[in-house]
Amino acid sequence: MNSLLQEALMGTRHISHAAIVRQKDGAIKAKSPNFALSPTDLQKIEAAFEHPRDVRSADNGIVFLDTPYRAVRADSMSVYAKNYVRRSQDKSGVIISKTSQHYIIAAYDPTMYASVAVEAVEKLGEAPPSKCIRRSRLKLIALPKADYFRKKSK
To answer: Residue 40 and residue 58: Cα distance in Å, rounded?
Structure first.
């Protein structure tokens, strides 16, 4: 799963830290270097998915890697949060996607594009279980080169 994490998320260069965590027991199945998730962080993530409305309120949020984040979107399948520090030019954030068995957690820095990070996390979360998340043996599919899709001139 580490290769999946590296290729699908870290390979975008728009995610600074990421992990795949099993929901059942909180085991970290794959992670980027310097990623740390405490049991309290995992409980907050679980609570965010159980009560998404509470996470979106002004008084609550998520603390991830010692940085407070406020949710800008939260539902039963994903949580998007931005840095909570007021008057800060820091535009970092965290994206958490829930699959049938795992949480996909990714953080991005101010120099990175949030839209690219969101797309990478959501694509990985929507991938068919046989391709990546439910099995430990990965089956990555190679996409055809861009030239394949171009119309051939006559």
So the answer is: 20
- CA gap 25, 27 in Å, rounded: 6
Q: What total number of domains does the chain contain?
A: 1
- Between CA 57 and CA 49 the distance in angstroms is 14
User: Closest Cα to residue 12, out of 118, 93, 133?
Assistant: 118
**How many Å apart are CA 71 and CA 80, to the nearest integer?**
6
* Rounded (10°) CA dihedral 4, 10, 11, 15: 140
Which residue type does 93 have? G
Is 154 part of a structural domain of the chain?
no
Domain residues for the domain of 145 are 2-149
DSSP code, position 103 = E
Tens of pLDDT, residues 12-44: 999 999 999 999 999 999 999 888 888 888 888
Task: Give the CATH number for residue 143.
Answer: 3.30.450.30
The answer as to whether 105 is a domain residue is yes
Condensed to tens digits (0 to 9), the pLDDT of residues 95-139 reads: 999 999 999 999 999 999 999 999 999 998 886 544 444 433 333
